[in-house]
Amino acid sequence: MKTKRIFFGLLLCMGLFAGSCSSDDNEGETLIPLEGKWDLSKTGIIVNGTEQLSDPVENQSGCSRDYLELKLDNTVNVGDYSSAVSACALTVQSGIYSRSHNNITTVINGVTKTQDIVNLTLKELKVKDAAGIITVYTR
Length: 139
What we know:
- This is Lipocalin-like protein.
- Residues 1-23 form the signal peptide.
- The protein is mainly beta and 139 residues long.
- It is 14% helix and 49% strand.
- The protein has one helix at 2-20, and strands spanning 36-47, 50-54, 67-70, 75-82, 89-100, 103-108, 111-120, 124-129, 134-138.
- It has an eight-stranded antiparallel barrel.
- A hairpin with a 4-residue loop joins strand 3 and strand 4.
């Protein structure tokens, strides 16, 4: 009986030890999904280590906000409201996107753009491109 207790105790310890070891396959990647419609909220740059964000000039006054729509099938739609031709006319450009760790890459009209995901929550997507331009989207 004592041998059985020791054996089961040893098995339990091995199981707890094996369960506490895990590999971090996502290497710091946030697990919140990107899919959904994101409204353009702020744009800016970093000056002397401080973010300088403001309302984007891309958003036409009196119109809905420009947006980024990321779909489950890895397609992307970029909506742009403009009053150049008619009031708040919507132009949508489509393409594809992929996510690799904390980067998002879009290809629209043959132009590839890779951005670092700086912050991703259920309500905010903040990205920064190689030139240091920060774009903030909200849902």
